[in-house]
Amino acid sequence: MNTLLYTDVEQELRASVRQALDRPAGGDASRALFAGIGCAGLAVPEEFGGAGASWREAAVVAEEVGRAAAPVPWLGSVLGTAALLSAGAGDLLPAVASGGLLAVLVLPLSTPPGAPVPATVRADGQALTGTVTPVADARDAGLLIVPTPDGLYAVDAAHAEQTPVTALDQTRPLSTVTFSSAPATRLGDAAAAGEAWRAALRVGAAVLAGEQLGVADWCLSSTVDYVKARYQFARPVGSFQAVKHRLAQLWVEVTQARAVARYAAGCVADRDPDAPVAASLAQAHCGPVAVRAAEECVQLHGGIGFTWEHRAHWYLKRAKAAAIALGTATQHRAVLGELVSLPPR
Amino acid sequence: MQTDELTGRVREFLAAHDPAATDRLDFLRARFDAGLAWVSFPVGLGGLGLPRAAQPVVDAAFAAAGAPDNDPRRIGIGLGMAAPTILRHGTDEQRRRWLRPLWTGEEVWCQLFSEPGAGSDLAALGTRAVPGAGPDGLDGWIVNGQKVWTSMAHQARWAILLARTDPDLPKHQGITYFVCDLTHPGVEVRPLRQLTGEAEFNEVFLTDVWIPDGYRLGGTGDGWRVAQTTLMNERVAIGGGAVPREAGMIGALARTWRERPELRSPAAHDALMKLWVAAEAGRLAATRLREQLAAGQPGAEGSAVKYAFARLNQEVSGFELELLGADGLTYEDWTMRRPSHVDWENRSPGYRYLRARGNSIEGGTSEILCNIIAERVLGLPPEPRADKDIAWKDLPR
Questions:
Q1: B234 flagged as catalytic
Q2: Best residue of A225, A228, A244, A262 to probe chain B, by most B CBs closer than 10 Å
């Protein structure tokens, strides 16, 4: 049953993830998340060494990653794992599920929904040549999953050249990945590559919505806390209706985003026929909500919210970049129109 | 009581009272007397003392047998607001007198709360009730004042009424809750024509209307507390059942888009899809709220659902008119009519646009809902109150 509520197990998972991410250094948090509490294998079936849970639980992890604006490669891992699962790469999955091997999908992070497999990397026998940019989370990857028009390939990260990109979102590392006759393992033919590509984009959109929900939720709750404590004109600024109503409206939007994100996670977890609609709906709705929440967070914090010292800017940058990642709301609305028989012309 | 046992009781009842062969009113009275009316009410008052969740099973079993219903849309105020208040605050005599004909629909109820000078600030109401003897020398109250936005007053026999009994106390303290017999002399009901051209509502003028003291619900001066039962039940009633995708106004807009390709343009398409996404987000949020309530997790999300619904209806209906172009310049009919309910589906786009303006005003304005969310959900400080410790008669107005 596709419930929109959280199960008790999911709430326990949330608590563990929150604890794991509550560390000063990002590297430690990654290890704790992937291997320590076993998030890496959440959506991987038990026969491949995974936890046999689903993308629903992966989305709960994403919520916490978003809430912490944690610089952990969760989105990259979700995209890579979704592609490997689609391709049935049984020999690679156990290492990935254990948290020992981070497999990341090599795609431009701004790839819109419905885009074809890019032709920027070509296969020549068992060697790949080409460049993809900007790729998220590849910096820490051990294995790069590369979709090409000829087929799906896996490349040892050591055989690719990476140039860091100065990213708008400082919490999600981007790089340019270049292959120069890099030795590669073929995981599937062109059809399998296309299938893995579409599956990864769909799962990625749904899980990213969880992250956006987490970002929005943190922005709302931290702003509410702030306006209760901040006094001007001898009153908490949160007692002014102009401020209260903005936050009430934001709460309504976050409440809706939670329902939409949960629906999308449930649909991709259950391979529901409505999953393509649910995933694009989630990006069309949750992306803009997270951006608005972060912008309101900066505004309602006043001067302190504009400083480098305050965390608000991490969330603003994360939200804005996430709204472009895997397609903008406008691009997802266009796709939705086709999916629900509301054609543009 | 298990579901099986409950449906068994309905079966037994139907065996003894064939819906096809029984007079409608006799059938409904018998259903009430069997405790199968509102099963969450006590035994003897139309119920079996069961949880509210048991009601849909009973209603479905009666509907499946083709039994007559009590036309709940016509008596919504009685069922949703008057009845829970009478049950909670009424005397045994009051419950016995009023609940049965209320449920069967023999007696329609309306609500005399809002006044021209007391809208969002309901507690500021100024309709006065002073002690006075009736025609037979019976103890009671003489009521004078004006009420507004009263749906069904032109068909109702009874009204729940808030009136001020002590103007020297602060506004929340001097109010008393009454039941008013609308057949009494001095009650004048006038249609209140609204901007759609028709009149769903009324104005009610009360001039020296006598109310026996036995029609008081709760103590003198206790009316505000009693009214909380009424108002809480109004918000619960908004919940409703699960709705499918593209239900409501977005469905009408989507139909227009599909049937009239000549209206399409790229800019209009993105605007359409923004509204489609907003409608779907609102629908899923309402679905999640129902799941929360069913799981016993109380949610203040009801205010959020109502707020979002009003905004969406207004945006969708406004866009639909513009999309229609020349057709958007027309209106169905300005003839004054008296509809008993709002019909979004079968009315014109112009009507939908105009009627939707009321959605953010009726049943709590969007501004008041934002205050409720901010204060009760987010815990933000309340508005500074200038009227809290001042006698009602001394309030600025």
A1: yes
A2: A244
Of A4, A284, A341, nearest to B291 by CB-CB distance is A4
Sign of the Cα pseudo-torsion (A315, A224, B307, A213, in order): positive
Point out the catalytic residue in the list B234, B301, B315, B320.
B234
Q: What is the pLDDT along chain A (345 residues), one digit of tens a residue?
A: 479 999 999 999 999 999 999 876 545 889 999 999 999 999 999 999 999 999 999 999 999 999 999 999 999 999 999 999 999 999 999 999 999 999 999 999 999 999 999 999 999 989 999 999 999 999 999 999 999 999 999 999 999 999 999 999 999 999 999 999 999 999 999 999 999 999 999 999 999 999 999 999 999 999 999 999 999 999 999 999 999 999 999 999 999 999 999 999 999 999 999 999 999 999 999 999 999 999 999 999 999 999 999 999 999 999 999 999 999 999 999 999 999 999 999
Return the structure tokens found at B241. 């059942």
Locus of tokens 């109702």: B156
Contact A122, A130 (CB under 8 A): yes
Estimate to the nearest angstrom the gap between the alpha carbon of B185 and the chain centroid. 27
* A216–B contact, CB cutoff 8 A: no
Give A320's contacts (C-beta < 8 A, 6+ positions apart). Answer: A168, A169, A291, A294
CA B222 to chain centre: 22
A-chain CB neighbours of B381 within 8 Å are 228, 235-236, 238-239
Please choose, from the candidates B288, B20, B216, B355, the residue with its C-alpha nearest in 3D space to the C-alpha of residue A257: B288
Tokens of A146: 């590369």
Question: What residues of A are in contact with residue B274 (Cβ under 8 Å)?
Answer: 333
Please tell me the distance from the alpha carbon of residue B152 to that of residue B78, in angstroms, as a whole number. 10
Pair A96, A42: CB distance under 8 Å? no
- Please name the amino acid found at residue B224: W
d(CA B79, CA B102): 7
B261 touches chain A (CB under 8 A): yes
The dihedral over CA atoms of B324, B327, B330, B331, expressed in degrees to the nearest 10, equals -70
B385 touching A (Cβ < 8 Å): no
Does residue B369 sit at the A interface (CB-CB below 8 Å)?
yes
3-state secondary structure at position B199: coil
Other CB atoms within 10 Å distance of the CB of residue A210: 30
Q: What angle do CA A209, A214, A220 make, to 5 degrees?
A: 125
H/E element holding B305? helix B301-324
Furthest CA-CA distance within chain A: 73
ipTM for the predicted complex: 0.96
Q: Which amino acid is at A122?
A: R
Q: Is A236 on the interface with B (CB under 8 A)?
A: yes
Q: What is d(CA B203, CA B191) in angstroms, rounded to the nearest whole number?
A: 6
B residues 298-327 lying closer than 8 A (beta carbon) to A: 301, 304, 307-308
